[in-house]
Design a protein that fits this description.
It comes from Astrephomene gubernaculifera. Keywords: Protease inhibitor, Signal, Thiol protease inhibitor. By secondary structure, this protein is mainly β. The protein has a single domain, classed as Nuclear Transport Factor 2, Chain: A. About 10% of the residues lie in helices and about 35% in strands. It contains 1 helix and 5 strands; from the N terminus they run E-H-E-E-E-E. It has a 5-stranded antiparallel β-sheet with strand order 1-2-3-4-5. Strand 2 and strand 3 form a beta hairpin. The longest helix has 15 residues. The protein is globular. The protein starts with about 35 loop residues before the first strand and ends in a 5-residue tail after the last strand. It binds 2-acetamido-2-deoxy-beta-D-glucopyranose (3 copies). The site of one 2-acetamido-2-deoxy-beta-D-glucopyranose (NAG) has 4 residues, from loops. The site of one 2-acetamido-2-deoxy-beta-D-glucopyranose has 2 residues, from loops.
Protein backbone atom coordinates (compact mmCIF):
# COMPACT_ATOMS: atom_id res chain seq x y z
CA UNK A 1 0.00 0.00 0.00
CA UNK A 2 1.26 3.34 -0.95
CA UNK A 3 0.71 6.19 1.31
CA UNK A 4 0.16 9.26 -0.61
CA UNK A 5 1.38 12.39 0.77
CA UNK A 6 -0.41 15.50 0.07
CA UNK A 7 1.55 18.58 0.04
CA UNK A 8 -0.24 21.32 1.69
CA UNK A 9 0.42 24.49 -0.04
CA UNK A 10 0.77 27.30 2.34
CA UNK A 11 -0.38 30.46 0.88
CA UNK A 12 1.71 33.23 2.18
CA UNK A 13 -0.38 36.28 2.28
CA UNK A 14 1.69 39.31 1.96
CA UNK A 15 -0.10 42.39 2.93
CA UNK A 16 0.67 45.14 0.59
CA UNK A 17 1.18 48.20 2.63
CA UNK A 18 0.04 51.35 0.99
CA UNK A 19 3.04 53.55 1.30
CA UNK A 20 1.55 56.60 -0.25
CA UNK A 21 2.84 59.75 1.31
CA UNK A 22 0.36 62.55 1.77
CA UNK A 23 0.93 65.17 -0.90
CA UNK A 24 2.49 68.51 -0.18
CA UNK A 25 3.06 68.30 3.55
CA UNK A 26 6.69 69.24 4.04
CA UNK A 27 7.97 69.40 7.60
CA UNK A 28 7.15 72.64 9.28
CA UNK A 29 10.03 75.05 9.18
CA UNK A 30 10.30 77.59 11.94
CA UNK A 31 9.55 81.13 10.88
CA UNK A 32 7.89 79.88 7.72
CA UNK A 33 5.40 82.68 8.16
CA UNK A 34 2.23 80.87 7.28
CA UNK A 35 0.04 78.62 9.37
CA UNK A 36 1.45 75.15 9.94
CA UNK A 37 -0.59 72.13 11.01
CA UNK A 38 -0.30 71.05 14.63
CA UNK A 39 -1.14 67.63 15.96
CA UNK A 40 -4.53 67.82 17.64
CA UNK A 41 -3.11 65.81 20.56
CA UNK A 42 -0.65 68.63 21.25
CA UNK A 43 -0.98 69.84 24.86
CA UNK A 44 -1.37 73.48 23.87
CA UNK A 45 -3.97 72.64 21.24
CA UNK A 46 -5.91 70.73 23.90
CA UNK A 47 -5.60 73.67 26.27
CA UNK A 48 -6.80 76.06 23.57
CA UNK A 49 -9.85 73.88 22.95
CA UNK A 50 -10.65 73.80 26.67
CA UNK A 51 -10.21 77.55 26.84
CA UNK A 52 -12.65 78.03 23.95
CA UNK A 53 -15.27 75.83 25.58
CA UNK A 54 -14.89 77.54 28.96
CA UNK A 55 -14.97 81.00 27.37
CA UNK A 56 -18.05 80.18 25.34
CA UNK A 57 -19.92 78.74 28.33
CA UNK A 58 -19.20 81.79 30.44
CA UNK A 59 -19.75 84.14 27.49
CA UNK A 60 -16.28 85.54 27.94
CA UNK A 61 -15.13 85.86 24.39
CA UNK A 62 -15.62 89.55 24.04
CA UNK A 63 -19.17 89.23 22.77
CA UNK A 64 -17.96 87.06 19.91
CA UNK A 65 -19.66 83.89 21.00
CA UNK A 66 -22.89 84.76 22.79
CA UNK A 67 -25.02 83.16 20.06
CA UNK A 68 -23.24 79.88 20.50
CA UNK A 69 -25.21 79.32 23.70
CA UNK A 70 -28.67 79.53 22.19
CA UNK A 71 -29.04 75.79 22.70
CA UNK A 72 -27.33 75.69 26.07
CA UNK A 73 -23.77 75.11 27.16
CA UNK A 74 -21.40 73.39 24.80
CA UNK A 75 -19.01 70.52 25.31
CA UNK A 76 -16.18 69.52 23.04
CA UNK A 77 -16.76 66.44 20.92
CA UNK A 78 -13.54 66.55 18.97
CA UNK A 79 -10.93 68.77 17.45
CA UNK A 80 -11.02 68.37 13.70
CA UNK A 81 -7.89 70.29 12.87
CA UNK A 82 -5.42 72.78 14.26
CA UNK A 83 -2.80 75.11 12.86
CA UNK A 84 -0.37 77.48 14.44
CA UNK A 85 1.18 80.69 13.18
CA UNK A 86 4.04 82.47 14.81
CA UNK A 87 2.95 85.89 15.94
CA UNK A 88 3.75 87.78 19.13
CA UNK A 89 3.35 84.37 20.65
CA UNK A 90 1.58 81.69 18.69
CA UNK A 91 -1.72 82.01 16.93
CA UNK A 92 -3.75 78.82 17.07
CA UNK A 93 -6.62 78.17 14.73
CA UNK A 94 -8.84 75.24 15.64
CA UNK A 95 -11.77 73.62 13.89
CA UNK A 96 -13.87 71.78 16.43
CA UNK A 97 -17.05 69.90 16.79
CA UNK A 98 -19.09 70.53 19.88
CA UNK A 99 -22.47 69.56 21.15
CA UNK A 100 -24.82 71.63 23.30
CA UNK A 101 -27.20 70.66 26.08
CA UNK A 102 -29.96 70.18 23.49
CA UNK A 103 -27.68 67.60 21.90
CA UNK A 104 -27.33 69.77 18.82
CA UNK A 105 -24.09 69.80 16.90
CA UNK A 106 -22.13 73.02 16.89
CA UNK A 107 -19.20 73.52 14.53
CA UNK A 108 -16.73 75.99 15.95
CA UNK A 109 -13.75 77.70 14.40
CA UNK A 110 -11.63 79.64 16.82
CA UNK A 111 -8.47 81.69 16.61
CA UNK A 112 -6.65 82.11 19.89
CA UNK A 113 -3.39 83.88 20.63
CA UNK A 114 -1.23 81.96 23.06
CA UNK A 115 1.57 83.81 24.82
CA UNK A 116 3.48 81.24 26.88
CA UNK A 117 5.25 83.86 28.96
CA UNK A 118 1.88 84.76 30.50
CA UNK A 119 1.26 81.28 31.87
CA UNK A 120 0.63 81.74 35.56
CA UNK A 121 0.03 79.40 38.45
CA UNK A 122 0.01 76.33 36.28
CA UNK A 123 -2.91 77.47 34.19
CA UNK A 124 -2.52 78.25 30.54
CA UNK A 125 -5.77 80.21 30.38
CA UNK A 126 -4.06 83.39 31.55
CA UNK A 127 -1.85 83.15 28.47
CA UNK A 128 -4.70 82.88 26.00
CA UNK A 129 -6.60 85.55 24.22
CA UNK A 130 -9.55 85.24 21.88
CA UNK A 131 -8.97 86.68 18.46
CA UNK A 132 -11.81 85.25 16.44
CA UNK A 133 -14.58 82.73 16.76
CA UNK A 134 -17.27 81.60 14.40
CA UNK A 135 -19.83 78.87 14.79
CA UNK A 136 -22.53 77.17 12.84
CA UNK A 137 -25.29 74.78 13.73
CA UNK A 138 -25.13 72.15 11.01
CA UNK A 139 -28.50 70.65 10.17
CA UNK A 140 -28.90 67.07 11.26
CA UNK A 141 -29.68 64.77 8.37
C1 LIG B 1 -0.22 62.90 16.83
O1 LIG B 1 0.38 62.54 18.04
C2 LIG B 1 0.02 61.25 18.47
C3 LIG B 1 0.59 61.05 19.86
O2 LIG B 1 1.88 61.55 19.98
C4 LIG B 1 0.54 60.24 17.47
O3 LIG B 1 0.18 58.96 17.88
C5 LIG B 1 -0.08 60.53 16.12
O4 LIG B 1 0.44 59.67 15.15
C6 LIG B 1 0.17 61.96 15.71
N1 LIG B 1 -0.60 62.26 14.50
C7 LIG B 1 -0.09 62.89 13.47
C8 LIG B 1 -1.00 63.14 12.33
O5 LIG B 1 1.10 63.24 13.44
C1 LIG C 1 -22.80 76.77 31.67
O1 LIG C 1 -21.46 76.64 32.07
C2 LIG C 1 -21.06 77.65 32.96
C3 LIG C 1 -19.58 77.50 33.19
O2 LIG C 1 -19.23 76.19 33.49
C4 LIG C 1 -21.86 77.54 34.25
O3 LIG C 1 -21.49 78.58 35.15
C5 LIG C 1 -23.33 77.67 33.90
O4 LIG C 1 -24.11 77.46 35.06
C6 LIG C 1 -23.72 76.67 32.84
N1 LIG C 1 -25.08 76.93 32.42
C7 LIG C 1 -25.97 75.97 32.31
C8 LIG C 1 -27.31 76.38 31.83
O5 LIG C 1 -25.71 74.80 32.58
C1 LIG D 1 -0.75 83.22 41.19
O1 LIG D 1 -0.80 82.78 42.52
C2 LIG D 1 -0.30 83.74 43.42
C3 LIG D 1 -0.27 83.11 44.81
O2 LIG D 1 -1.38 82.26 45.01
C4 LIG D 1 -1.16 85.00 43.38
O3 LIG D 1 -0.67 85.96 44.26
C5 LIG D 1 -1.15 85.54 41.96
O4 LIG D 1 -2.04 86.62 41.86
C6 LIG D 1 -1.57 84.47 40.98
N1 LIG D 1 -1.42 84.99 39.63
C7 LIG D 1 -2.39 84.93 38.73
C8 LIG D 1 -2.07 85.51 37.40
O5 LIG D 1 -3.47 84.44 38.96
Amino acid sequence: MRASFFLVAIAVVTSVAATTTPPSSPPATPNAGGPTPVNITDATVQAVAKFVVASANTNQCGGKCSGILKGGNVTLVKINSATQTLAAGKMYKLCMQMVNTQAKKVSVKATVLYRPWLVANGTMDAAMKFVKVSFTFPKAR
